[in-house]
Design brief:
- By secondary structure, this protein is an alpha/beta fold.
- The protein has 2 domains: 226 residues, TIM Barrel; 111 residues, no CATH class.
- 29% of the residues lie in helices and 26% in strands.
- The chain has 10 helices and 19 strands.
- The strands form 3 sheets. Strands 1, 13, 14, 15, 16, 17, 18 and 19 form an 8-stranded mixed β-sheet that branches. It has an 8-stranded parallel beta barrel with strand order 2-3-4-5-6-8-9-10, surrounded by 6 helices. It has a two-stranded antiparallel ribbon with strand order 11-12.
- Helix 4 links the parallel strand 4 and strand 5.
- The mean pLDDT is 96.
Length: 356
């Protein structure tokens, strides 16, 4: 079985660095654990690094964190299903919402249980994921403020995750302008401007985050040390936080281009092959069911991931500096997307390495 080695202390170092960086700009970090399925060990590292709020998108992950004894403030990043609301209000402190109906239902369920939940209403500033579109936001947010009252703690936006839209000061100013407008209309204070994620960190580094933005939701940068939207490693962070190993089950020299007519592969993709002559190719016991092959970064110098089917990863090891044999393992760093699949897969063993 493939193995992923997890280094919690390294994740803690990333969390500490990013929390301190954001704190200098008056920004509180929400530590997002969703890529790890709400792993309590990783969440505890974030909390030990000074992070006070955790963010999750799935209720089962929140339940896992609460069952481990974590009682810190919890933000649910995705609106719960209607049938989950009665459970959610017992576990979650703040909900990110983008519709009035679910917000009303959550508020009513919270009142029935005697709990006070707060809301961050999402505004779409151009990435086209969740949120009321900024050009039409005023009316809906005014209704939300009057419906929730002081329980509407803030407004937020998401950039980079769907449309790949880059965070800019101008995007954040849109959110601030809307917030001020709602305050003027309703007399209610917008306390939280949750405007950033990992893709927004360059603005923190460049000191161009507009004053008033006071919350970032960080997952990828803490856990992986990367920023896929801006195609970079995040300065001051480590990327060796997770290492996957898989076993070589076949090692043979073959042509670099398949023979015959090429259609689509098992995932509906039409592969493109460059003719590089014969290649020494290693087939490993991991595939697209467990990882995203495009996010596998070999640690063996000279090795190159070629492609994967559901159960097999094919790696060109022709130029590998290391002599490989069947039965040996190869190690890989993982992108955020590859890590997401690996942590979700029951066919990948998770092992914790308590070293820095």
């Amino acid at each position: 079985m493939p193995v992923i080695r997890i280094f919690p202390a390294r994740i803690g170092q990333n969390a500490q660095h990013l929390r301190a960086l954001c704190q200098l700009r008056g920004i509180e970090v929400v530590g997002v654990t969703k890529v790890t399925l709400g792993d309590p060990i990783i969440a505890t590292e974030m909390l030990s690094a000074g992070i006070r709020i955790l963010g999750e998108s799935r209720l089962a992950n929140v339940e896992r964190l609460r069952a481990s004894g974590i009682s810190h403030h919890m933000v649910l990043l995705r609106t719960p299903e209607s049938r989950e609301i009665s459970r959610a209000v017992k576990l979650v402190d703040t909900f990110l919402v983008s519709e009035l109906g679910p917000m009303r239902a959550i508020q009513e369920a919270a009142e029935e249980t005697g709990r006070r939940c707060t809301f961050i209403y999402m505004v779409d500033t151009g990435d086209l994921r969740e949120g009321v579109h900024y050009k039409n936001a005023s009316k809906e947010l005014t209704k939300a403020a009057r419906l929730a009252g002081d329980s509407l703690s803030g407004i937020g936006t998401n950039l980079g995750c769907y449309g790949g839209i880059i965070a800019t000061p101008e995007k954040f100013e849109i959110l601030l302008h809307i917030g001020r407008k709602i305050e003027k209309k309703t007399g209610q204070k917008i306390r939280v401007y949750s405007a950033g994620n990992t893709a927004s960190l360059p603005l923190v580094e460049e000191k161009t985050v507009p004053e008033g933005i006071n919350q970032f939701r960080l997952g990828e940068s803490i856990i992986c040390g990367t920023d896929v939207t801006n195609n970079r490693d995040v300065p001051g962070t480590r990327q060796d936080t997770f290492i996957m190993s898989a076993e070589i089950i076949e090692l043979k020299t073959k042509p670099s281009v398949p023979e015959g007519l090429i259609g689509q592969d098992a995932f509906g993709r039409k592969p493109v092959f460059a003719d590089k002559g014969k290649q020494l190719r290693a087939i490993l016991n991991v595939g697209e069911q467990d990882i995203y092959s495009g996010g596998m970064i070999p640690l063996d110098k000279g090795a190159e991931v070629l492609h994967a089917s559901s159960d097999h990863l094919i790696v060109d090891v022709s130029k590998c500096e290391k002599t490989l044999k069947v039965g040996q393992t190869m190690e890989f760093r993982l992108s955020y997307g590859a890590l997401l699949r690996a942590m979700t897969s029951p066919f990948v063993e998770k092992v914790y390495e308590h070293t820095s």
